[in-house]
Amino acid sequence: MKTLSALASYRRASVDRIRQALDADSSSYLIKGPRGCGADELLGAMALALVGACGGCGVCSSCVAVADGEHPDVLFAQGERGKLVPVEELRRLVRFASLAPTQAAHRVVIIPDIDTLRLSFPVILKALEEPPTATRWLLSAALIGAELAPVASRCFVIEIEAPSMAEIEGRFDEVQLEPTEQLVRWTRRRLDRVALFARLTDAERYLSGFANLPDLVREDARWSLELVYRLTPRDLATTAEAEEVLQCGLEILIAAHPENADWLRRASRASLSLARHLPIQLVLAELILREG
């Protein structure tokens, strides 16, 4: 888990805003920035700063416990990325937030991507309105729409920018993946995709399959099945990761063929199917097979 000081080497302006917000001593903070901007890391660094007497050094026993998910006063929302956090999990967070800290000065609750929860906002709204003195809520969102506005109005909102290309390339070095021109471009300045690409076997070759897809598809049922197999993501730990890498592939497909209305329709339809969490191979099949 990175500290605010470590993150400041790439994101000085964002870290300065976070430190100013922490000095304001609010009960709730909401980081707002583009999807994949590293908000999870920033929330974790804020938790280190709030819980450790050291101010978030990253190496003391308190900071190590936070990083390992074992600190009794820090709770991260549990849920598969890209899918809704269950309502019962939110209720667990609210119960946790209502208790006094046992070791640290603050009890910290962390919910990334809160804008994806939608109808679950009321579960935590009252907890944000009347938090115990020592409780700190740390949230992040890519967008603050009308549904999220009541939550945002009760938080200290911190605007952060997308990662720089230097930071993206630095993250490739961290995961020991060659930052080729194509892979760097395909991240679309999203830090989470760097780690995702690192978990794919030959990421550039796999993702190039989407860029070349219109030339690969042909009217052959056996070949279509082979193509679905080739494009099914491998080596990923969760379904959500597979959905994310496939979404990235659809973006690559559209960018490589911007004037092709047929493939734009196909990719858009597949993206909607991903949003509904249909099986990956079914999404690929409807992408490859001709409509009608």
UniProtKB/TrEMBL annotation:
Pfam short name (any one): DNA_pol3_delta2
Source species, domain of life: Bacteria
Gene3D superfamilies (UniProt xref): P-loop containing nucleotide triphosphate hydrolases
PANTHER family, A to Z: DNA POLYMERASE III SUBUNIT DELTA, REPLICATION FACTOR C / DNA POLYMERASE III GAMMA-TAU SUBUNIT
Protein name: DNA polymerase-3 subunit delta
